[in-house]
Specification:
- This protein is mainly α and 131 residues long.
- The radius of gyration is 22 Å and the shape is elongated.
Amino acid sequence: MVSTVICPRCKTKNSKKAELCYKCKNPLKPSKSRKSNPLSFDPKSRFDLRIIITGLILFVLCNIAFLYISPDYSMLMSGFVVMLFLYLLFKHYMEPNDPSMTIKTLGLKVILYYLIIIALGVVVLLLFHLY
């Protein structure tokens, strides 16, 4: 008797040696070596330097762009863009059933990253005389 594995996605019977489903090409076995994408974020970590650097670059570029549109409000508008970026990033990566990630912790995390990015952004703008 040939043993089979049932695909969790489409419920097709596959041979036990199959790595992909014959019908939907879904992986049947979990991969043993997980390669991390260097551009992926880990919002669950305490401080993710990639989020801070991306936000800093976004803040500086938006500030420079908004200086030509509205010099009086460029800092305000680029700060809003960074806040929106952080909110969408953390909201996207938040697990739906994770009890530790409430809306309060999400908000606190967004505000903490926001303050770090804005403080570093103002320093960068002042150092390079971009503002």
